[in-house]
Amino acid sequence: LWVAPHDLRERFVEAIDHEIAAHRETGNGYLLFKTNALVDRTIVRALYKASQAGVKVDLIVRGACCLRPGVPGWSETIRVISVVGRFLEHSRIYVFGSQGDAGVYMGSADLMERNLDRRVEVVFPVEDPALAAEVRDEIAARYLLDTVNAHELTADGTYRRLTPAPGQEPFDVQAWLVNRY
């Protein structure tokens, strides 16, 4: 378990650094975080470092996000989307790595100083390979496809609404979850 205020921030930074090292070896480094807020300076800096090393980073941040994606030379491999729909979501998912070798974690912690320094928060590994694959490839990945409730954060700090490509059906991840589960 990764536990705040004990070692949660440090474990995140270590896992991000591990993914940077893996990317240097394989060229397919990947991070996907689904959280309600990303404002912790140390973690934001670690994600910038990952981007500068070439790691692809997908962030699904419903609320406050202090990271600027898509800034050349700084965060050009980072994408941030916000999905705000019918349901107020509280699930947190953290994926370190790509496909079969990915570490999948879930928990209560938003990436905020308040949560990491002054609250008891827990992040745990999803150890069952089938469950980890479902969380990573089915649930978390579907958030990146939303074209009904999603907005993408741009490099200038504004959000733009995501819409379906021509000929593509609109996709609502929350409706998909309701129908699936």
Provide a compact summary of the structure.
This protein is about 35% helix and about 25% strand. Helix 1 (about 10-25) packs parallel to helix 2.
Structure description:
The chain has 5 helices and 9 strands; from the N terminus they run E-H-E-H-E-E-E-E-H-E-H-E-E-H. The protein has 181 residues and is of the alpha+beta class. The chain has a 9-stranded mixed β-sheet. Strand 8 (150-153) and strand 9 (159-161) form a beta hairpin. Helix 1 (8-26) runs parallel beside helix 2. The longest helix is centred in the N-terminal third of the chain and has 19 residues, at 8-26. The two termini are 27 Å apart. The model has no long low-confidence stretch (mean pLDDT 95).
Number of helices: 5
| Oligomeric state of the chains in view | single chain
Helix/strand/pairing category? alpha+beta
Major sheet size, sense and barrel closure: 9 strands, mixed
Distance between the termini: 27 Å
- Report Rg: 16 Å
Chain-wise SSE layout:
Layout: E1 2-4, H1 8-26, E2 30-35, H2 41-52, E3 56-61, E4 78-83, E5 92-96, E6 103-107, H3 113-118, E7 121-125, H4 129-143, E8 150-153, E9 159-161, H5 173-180
Parallel strand pairs: 2-3, 3-4
Antiparallel strand pairs: 1-7, 2-5, 4-8, 5-6, 6-7, 8-9
Helix pairs in contact: 1-2
